[in-house]
Sequence to fold (131 residues):
Amino acid sequence: MAEFSTILEMVRNLGLAFAAFVGIYLAWKRVAAATRQADATLQQAELARRGHVAELFNRAVGQLTDAKLEVRLGAIYTLRQIARDFPDLAEPTFELLSTYLRENSAKYEGVQPPVDVREITKTLVDHMVLK
Fold:
């Protein structure tokens, strides 16, 4: 009878071990699915953020030629922040500001340029110093 009891104990232990492995496998599958879901959510959030930045960029570009100084300054500050927060957009942003400055610098020869032009110059100089 002791042998039978030992065999039953071994079968029970094997069953418990098998159940534990099945449980671990199912938990691993659940964690893998949750990780994929989290990754997809992060990708969606990043796409939404980049879409928002693209909208801000386009709006700021349009505001560079606004008649009101405060609107132009807001556009410059927005572009500066975009360049800081998104390194892959820094070069296009600084190229845009450089082009804007080149196209409009002839208007201010011999006269002190307005605040917005000085801010663009300061932004570009800061960029060149940090490079």
